[in-house]
Amino acid sequence: MEHKRTAVLVAGSWGTALARVLADNGHQVNLWTRNPQQAEEINTKRRNEKYLPGAELPSGMKATADIAQALEGADLALFVAPSSAMRDVARMAAPHLSSDTLVIHATKGFETGSRKRMSTVLAEELDKDERCVVVLSGPSHAEEVINRQPTTVVVASKDSACAEAAQDFFMNEAYFRVYTNPDLIGVETAGAVKNIIALGAGLSDGLGFGDNAKAALITRGLAEIARLGSAMGANPLTFAGLAGVGDLIVTCTSPHSRNWRAGSMLAKGLPLAEVLERMGMVVEGVRSTKAVHELAAHYGVEMPITEQLFSVLFEGKSPEQAVGDLMGRVRRHEIEEIAAASRDKWLK
């Protein structure tokens, strides 16, 4: 494998973990952070204690607070900024990015306000065709990847050559397996909406409900993801794969998940502002709930779990009342509902 120059923006937990994969694969990695003290910690102590406490970082990973330096000569630019900061980071990167640099993002969320997917935001700010932007997603905790635990993800792009190039950068035989998928819309939508369902799973666990409740929440959450994704033009089969059910399971069942932890704290009566302050890191599901609530209205898609979580997060509804309202919905026929969600050009 040819070793190349790569830039990772920014140095949060997921960006740092993916930088490790690239470094383990022999690539030169420049990890960009806005914080010079964080860059110094990574370079001198081989640590990123705020985001991945206790993890030792490889020598092949260099950090810098200079975005031009990070992107100089880069064959790959990996954007892992929070959804709220993606446009700003892309705008900063644009003057320093070569036209032939492969652009990948690994952020699971929509832009607040515009409700745009991250590939669209990057294409707009970097003056690139969205077809050439790649998303990396799937069931993956940074805390496990940084310790080289077996992980399987998917890279999606409308351009198969770009997806395969991304696959070549990240795949290794030791612990990181990568599949390709042409359904950019489906993979991005699944990654964003599953964070909302994970908030609900944490809330369910925090209220002391059992496995029955969480299994139902995950299953019905997957139906909501599929309904919205299909309305947006995704392939429904994507939601049965790594980016859909795979990521949904890992995010709804693990205390590694920020969204699960945030939901659990909300169930204990903590106000949202205090939950976010205690987390100390971005909880994408909170922002995604706003965007997806608006997208559901725009596309005329029924998303009762999202609707109830929106009410809990932003309208002061109690978690107990939200659960009661979900359980008290009118009777439905499951098979007919699934068929309706699948009725599009992909399955005809």
Automatic annotation (TrEMBL):
Q: Does the keyword Metal-binding apply?
A: no
- Residue sites binding NAD(+) per the record: A142, R258
According to its UniProt entry, the protein's GO biological process terms are: carbohydrate metabolic process; glycerol-3-phosphate biosynthetic process; glycerol-3-phosphate catabolic process; glycerophospholipid metabolic process; phospholipid biosynthetic process
Q: Where does sn-glycerol 3-phosphate bind?
A: K108, G138, S140, K194, D247, S257, R258, N259
> Which of this chain's residues are annotated to bind substrate?
K108, R258, N259
In short, the EC number is 1.1.1.94
Q: What does this protein do?
A: Catalyzes the reduction of the glycolytic intermediate dihydroxyacetone phosphate (DHAP) to sn-glycerol 3-phosphate (G3P), the key precursor for phospholipid synthesis.
Give the record's family classification: Belongs to the NAD-dependent glycerol-3-phosphate dehydrogenase family.
Q: What is this protein called?
A: Glycerol-3-phosphate dehydrogenase [NAD(P)+]
Query: Which species is the source of this protein?
Result: Cohnella pontilimi
Gene (UniProt): gpsA
